[in-house]
Specification:
The complex is a heterodimer of chains A (180) and B (199). With 180 residues, chain A is mainly α. Helix content of chain A is 47%, strand content 3%. With 199 residues, chain B is mainly beta. In chain B, the strands form 3 sheets. Chain B has a 7-stranded mixed beta sheet with strand order 2-3-12-9-8-1-4, with no helix packed on it. In chain B, strands 7-11-10 form a 3-stranded antiparallel beta sheet, with no helix packed on it. Classes of the chains: A mainly alpha (180), B mainly beta (199). Chains A and B meet through helix 8 of A and helix 2 of B.
């Protein structure tokens, strides 16, 4: 993301970078990163100036983002942790939101391009009081297959089906099964 | 497995909860054939002929948006049944007479590139099914689609070219287009909006 607050509005509207790329188009990309992929950003519309002001205002009021190294895959940038929740993008990703995504979204860690080295430590911190369903939802497909195999469940199917099958089977000690 | 199959369920109407609706959302996603290996297409284990449950494009690639106008309903599909005298029957996947919206130098450059290319295409139906799980369609799983320029007339369609994407001449897909559902509708919609881009 570029530091748009250091640019003049006119510069963003009409300027180009050293490679000749229009700043307005790059701004719209960052705008969608911050407000979600469905956010409207028309650089030729009269409202474009308002978008710039809105973006700069949002950035300046945002608390310092603590992101230990989480990065969403480009195709999942702007994903919702669950129905009705605010979209999470690389522009507003924090450790807290990343862990919420891993726990709440059926794809869990599969949503991420990069995870921090201390992911286990962070998850453990966020795990306090984690339900069995949430623990299952945070597993990757190979781990799900391992658990399903240990429980003698059907191992075919997608991640969602595997998770549903394991949850339906009832609560077990996942750490113990994964350690085998 | 036999090439002839028996049907195994009733075909019923649900006019109360899930009535049929015609038409497509007026955005297509076009993916270069070379950018999506077969290994990047995850077929649902229970319904491999009907459902794709995940797409992973090659590293550093992305699909491309083909934009229409929502109120015009110009973007549509019109798949055709293909009968074969000596082999199995199939379908020709067809997205006919689409208005090529960008007539600039850049747009026409892409048009030129597409003349000899092969593609997968994804659409979103206006009818989305229960939990919107049946919204997205994936065309050309086995053979891909090729583009044909139907017309490029200065006094028609505001001077915009008209193109058709279809299963290549002489080929056919064995089945109707796959549904595409990556986990759920919201996740698939996010991935579609991000053009299934890979870092």
């Amino acid at each position: 993301m570029m530091e748009w607050q250091s640019y003049k509005i006119e510069e963003i509207k009409t300027g180009s970078d050293e490679s000749g790329n229009r700043l307005a188009l790059q701004f719209c990309q960052d705008y969608k990163d911050l407000f979600g992929p469905d956010a409207h950003c028309c650089h030729t519309c009269p409202s474009f100036e308002n978008k710039i002001n809105k973006y700069i205002q949002k950035i300046s009021t945002m608390k310092e983002v603590k992101n230990s190294g989480f990065e969403l895959k480009p195709m999942y940038n702007g994903i919702q942790p669950k129905f009705g929740a605010a979209p999470v993008s690389n522009g507003n990703l924090t450790d807290e939101k990343a862990i919420e995504l891993i726990n709440e979204h059926p794809k869990g860690k599969d949503l991420f391009e990069k995870l921090p080295d201390n992911i286990d430590e962070l998850m453990e911190g966020g795990d306090s009081g984690q339900t069995f369903d949430q623990q299952v939802n945070s597993l990757l497909k190979p781990q799900l297959v391992q658990v399903a195999t240990a429980l003698e469940l059907e191992t075919e199917g997608n991640v969602k089906e595997l998770k549903a099958r394991i949850i339906e089977n009832g609560e077990v000690d996942l750490d113990e099964l994964l350690a085998e | 497995m036999s090439c002839t199959e028996k049907i195994a369920a009733d075909i019923l109407r649900d006019c109360d909860n899930n009535p049929p609706v015609k038409g497509l959302e007026q955005n297509l996603l076009i993916i270069n054939w070379e950018d999506l290996a077969k290994s990047g297409i995850s077929l649902d284990a229970s319904n491999p002929k009907e459902l794709i449950d995940g797409l992973t494009l090659n590293s550093g690639t992305s699909g491309f948006l083909f934009e229409g106008i929502q109120s015009k309903q110009n973007i549509k599909h019109a798949n055709e049944f293909v009968t074969n005298e000596n082999t199995q029957n199939g379908l020709r996947h067809i997205l006919p007479e689409l208005i090529w919206a960008d007539n600039s130098k850049a747009g026409r450059a892409e048009l030129n590139k597409m003349k000899n290319g092969r593609f997968y295409i994804i659409s979103e139906r206006l009818w989305k099914g229960a939990d919107s799980a049946d919204a997205f369609l994936f065309y050309g799983y086995l053979i891909g689609l090729e583009m044909v320029i139907v017309s490029d007339e200065s006094n028609e369609n505001d001077g915009l070219p008209v193109v058709t994407f279809q299963t290549p001449e002489g080929f056919y897909e064995p089945n109707v287009p796959h549904l595409l559902l990556d986990t759920d509708y919201a996740t698939t919609k996010t991935a579609f909006g991000n053009k299934f881009a890979q870092a």
